[in-house]
C-alpha cells in the first residue's frame, strides 16, 4: 500500500524528471552555423509584404505590377525555395482612401495575378495583415482567397523544409485581431488559441536546425519602430523566441525598413511592395545554418548577397557570425548573384585587394577562395560584384582569428582537436582525418565508436563511453534500490521505495536518453564539434537524473531517522 506522501510524490517527481530530461536535450541552434567549402547546403527565399492590391490613389498600378514581377520574373530568375508575403495582401479601399471592408474584387484580382504566374502553396506563403481583416471577423476572405488559407482553412501555417543536412522550420503567424474591427482600429494580437497552435508546432519541430518566423506586425517597440506593435501575446512570443532561439522574425506593416538583432533574434522589416519605392524585396539565404539577408528594390536588377563567410555586421551586430581561421589558405567565398539579363561575371575582393573571379557552382550561386593566412587578425571587408553592374555590390565584415589547434578547441571545424588534428588548414585539406575512416588502435577512446568508425567530421557515431556512463547511472540506481528495499524490510514497511515511484518513468527516460545519444551525435548539422557538445550536454542531464533520485532516497532516509 502506498503512503499518502509517496502517492503524492509519484506525479511531481515524474514531472520533474521529465522536465529535467527534456531540458537536457540540447536543441539545434543558430550558433551551430559552420564555415564550409561545400556548396550543397545552401538555399534561399524571398520576403515581401504589404502588396495592397486594390490601392490606386498613390501608386497607380504599382500594387499589381510589383506583385506580378515578384511572382513572375523574379521567381523565374532567382528560383527561391519560397516567397513569403507578410500580410496586407489587399488594400480594402476598392481604389478609395479608407479601407472600409473586404472587397471580393480585390481578392479576385490578387488571385488572378498569382495564379497566372503559376504560384501554389508549395512556393507562395501568404499570411494576413490588418487590411485583410477589416470588418471581416474570423478572416473569412483570407481563408477563402489566399493561397495558404484556401488550402487548409487556417490563418497560421507551419512549414518545414527538409534537406540532406537538416530540417528548417518556417512559422507564419496571424498578428491581426480576429474581431473584425473596422478601420482605424488595429487590435494586433496573438490570442490564446493562436499561441497554443504556435507552441504545438514549435514542440513538433523542436529539433529543427533553425526556426524562422514571419508575421505582419512588429512584435515589440524598440524605439525606432514607429508603428503600432503587437499587443496581446507579445511577452509569450518573445519568450518563445528565446526558448527556441528563433533566428529571425520577418514582418511588414510599417512600410519602413528595419533590420536589427534583439536578444538573439533578427527583426527584419521589409517595406511595402505596393506603396514603397525601395527596399521592398528581401533576399535571404541559409548557408550551413548561417543566415544572410539583404533588401532590394522591386523590378531592379541585380541582386547580390554574400552567404559565406557570415556577415559580422548583419543587424548591427550578428551574434551568430563565425570567424575565419587565419591558417586557411583556401577560405571559401560564396554569393548569390541574380540579374536579367544574367551577370556576365561575378568577382570578389578582400579589403582593397585585387578582384578575383568566382565560379558559378549552382544556378545563381558563385564560389571563390582567398588566402586567410595572408590576413592580419581582426576585421576585414569582403565585397562581391556582379558585372556589368557597378552600383549593386554587396560588402560585409568578417573576422579573422588565429587558429592554434592546440587550445583544446576544434579551430578548423573538422571534428578533431589538438594532437588528433594534423593541420588546421580547413575541412577540405587532404589529411585522412577529414574523411570517414576506420578507427585504429592509436585513436583515443573518446572518439571510438561501437562499430569502430567515426563520421566525416570526426564525430563519434556511437560512443561506448557515453553509453557506459549512462548505464552506470542506472546501475547505481539499482544498487540504491536494493539498499532501500532491504531497509523497507527491516522497518516492516509494506510500501514501495521512492525509486520505485519514479522507476516506471525515470528508467524509461534514462533508457531513451541512452538510445538518443547516437542520434544526437550524428545530427544533420554542418559538422564541427557542435553535435558532440549536444550529446555531452544530454549525458550530463541524464547524470543529473540519477543524482536527483539518490537525493530523494537520502531525503527519505532522513525523514525516517
In terms of topology, how is this protein built?
Elements: H1 4-24, E1 42-48, H2 62-78, E2 83-86, H3 104-116, E3 124-127, H4 140-145, H5 147-152, E4 157-163, E5 166-172, H6 192-204, E6 210-214, H7 234-243, E7 248-251, E8 258-262, E9 265-269, E10 281-287, E11 290-296, E12 303-308, E13 324-325, E14 331-338, E15 345-350, E16 356-357, E17 359-362, E18 365-370, E19 378-387, E20 394-401, H8 464-491, H9 498-522, H10 530-560
Parallel strand pairs: 1-2, 2-3, 5-6, 6-7, 7-9, 13-20
Antiparallel strand pairs: 1-10, 4-5, 8-9, 10-11, 12-14, 14-18, 15-16, 15-19, 17-18, 19-20
Helix pairs in contact: 1-9, 1-10, 2-3, 8-9, 8-10, 9-10
General description of the model:
The chain is of the alpha/beta class and 561 residues long. The protein has three domains: 120 residues, no CATH class; 266 residues, 4-Layer Sandwich (Purple Acid Phosphatase, chain A, domain 2), CATH 3.60.21; 112 residues, Immunoglobulin-like (Sandwich), CATH 2.60.40. It is built from ten helices and 20 strands. The strands form four sheets. A six-stranded mixed beta sheet has the order 4-5-6-7-9-8, covered by helices on one side. It has a five-stranded mixed beta sheet with strand order 3-2-1-10-11. The chain starts with a helix and ends with a helix. The N terminus is likely disordered.
Amino acid at each position: 500500500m502506498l503512503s499518502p506522501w509517496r502517492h503524492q510524490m509519484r506525479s511531481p517527481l515524474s514531472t520533474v524528471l521529465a522536465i529535467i530530461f527534456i531540458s537536457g536535450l540540447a536543441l539545434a541552434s543558430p550558433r551551430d552555423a559552420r564555415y564550409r567549402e561545400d556548396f550543397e547546403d545552401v538555399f534561399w527565399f524571398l520576403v515581401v509584404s504589404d502588396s495592397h492590391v486594390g490601392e490606386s490613389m498613390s501608386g497607380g498600378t504599382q500594387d499589381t505590377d510589383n506583385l506580378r514581377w515578384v511572382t513572375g520574373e523574379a521567381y523565374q530568375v532567382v528560383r527561391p525555395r519560397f516567397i513569403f508575403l507578410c500580410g496586407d495582401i489587399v488594400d480594402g479601399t476598392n481604389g478609395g482612401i479608407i479601407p472600409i471592408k473586404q472587397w471580393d474584387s480585390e481578392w479576385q484580382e490578387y488571385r488572378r495575378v498569382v495564379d497566372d504566374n503559376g504560384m501554389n502553396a508549395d512556393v507562395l506563403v501568404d499570411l494576413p495583415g490588418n487590411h485583410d481583416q477589416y470588418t471581416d471577423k474570423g478572416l473569412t476572405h483570407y481563408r477563402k482567397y489566399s493561397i495558404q488559407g484556401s488550402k487548409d482553412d487556417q490563418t497560421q501555417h507551419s512549414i518545414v523544409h527538409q534537406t540532406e543536412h537538416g530540417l528548417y522550420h518556417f512559422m507564419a503567424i496571424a498578428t491581426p485581431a480576429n474581431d473584425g474591427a473596422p478601420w482605424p482600429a488595429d487590435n494586433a494580437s496573438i490570442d490564446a488559441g493562436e499561441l497554443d497552435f504556435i507552441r504545438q508546432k514549435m514542440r513538433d519541430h523542436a529539433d529543427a536546425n533553425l526556426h524562422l518566423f514571419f508575421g505582419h506586425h512588429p512584435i515589440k517597440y524598440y524605439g525606432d519602430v514607429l508603428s503600432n506593435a503587437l499587443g496581446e501575446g507579445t511577452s509569450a512570443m518573445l519568450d518563445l523566441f528565446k526558448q527556441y532561439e528563433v533566428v529571425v522574425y520577418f514582418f511588414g506593416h510599417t512600410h519602413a525598413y528595419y533590420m536589427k538583432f534583439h536578444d538573439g533574434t533578427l527583426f527584419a522589416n521589409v517595406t511595402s511592395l505596393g506603396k514603397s519605392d525601395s527596399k521592398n524585396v528581401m533576399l535571404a539565404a541559409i548557408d550551413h545554418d548561417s543566415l544572410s539577408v539583404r533588401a532590394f528594390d522591386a523590378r531592379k536588377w541585380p541582386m547580390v548577397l554574400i552567404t559565406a563567410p557570415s556577415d559580422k555586421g548583419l543587424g548591427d551586430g550578428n551574434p551568430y557570425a563565425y570567424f575565419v581561421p587565419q591558417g586557411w589558405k583556401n577560405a571559401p567565398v560564396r554569393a548569390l548573384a541574380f540579374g536579367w539579363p544574367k551577370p556576365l561575371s561575378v568577382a570578389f575582393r578582400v579589403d582593397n585587394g585585387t578582384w578575383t573571379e568566382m565560379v558559378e557552382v549552382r544556378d545563381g550561386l558563385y564560389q571563390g577562395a582567398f588566402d586567410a593566412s595572408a590576413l592580419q587578425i581582426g576585421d576585414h571587408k569582403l565585397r562581391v560584384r556582379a558585372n556589368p553592374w557597378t552600383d549593386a555590390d554587396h560588402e560585409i565584415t568578417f573576422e579573422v582569428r588565429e587558429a592554434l589547434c592546440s587550445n583544446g578547441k576544434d579551430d578548423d571545424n573538422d571534428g578533431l582537436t589538438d594532437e588528433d588534428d594534423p593541420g588546421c588548414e580547413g575541412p577540405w585539406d587532404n589529411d585522412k582525418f577529414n574523411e570517414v575512416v576506420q578507427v585504429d588502435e592509436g585513436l583515443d577512446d573518446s572518439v571510438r565508436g561501437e562499430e569502430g568508425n567515426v563520421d566525416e567530421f570526426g564525430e563519434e557515431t556511437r560512443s561506448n563511453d557515453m553509453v557506459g556512463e549512462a548505464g552506470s547511472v542506472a546501475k547505481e540506481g539499482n544498487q540504491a534500490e536494493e539498499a532501500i528495499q532491504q531497509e523497507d524490510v527491516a522497518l516492516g514497511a509494506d510500501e514501495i521505495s521512492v525509486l520505485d515511484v519514479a522507476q516506471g518513468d525515470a528508467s524509461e527516460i534514462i533508457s531513451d536518453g541512452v538510445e538518443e545519444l547516437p542520434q544526437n551525435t550524428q545530427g544533420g548539422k554542418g559538422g564541427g564539434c557542435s553535435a558532440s557538445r549536444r550529446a555531452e550536454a544530454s549525458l550530463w542531464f541524464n547524470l543529473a537524473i540519477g543524482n536527483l533520485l539518490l537525493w530523494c532516497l537520502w531525503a527519505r532516509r532522513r525523514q525516517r531517522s
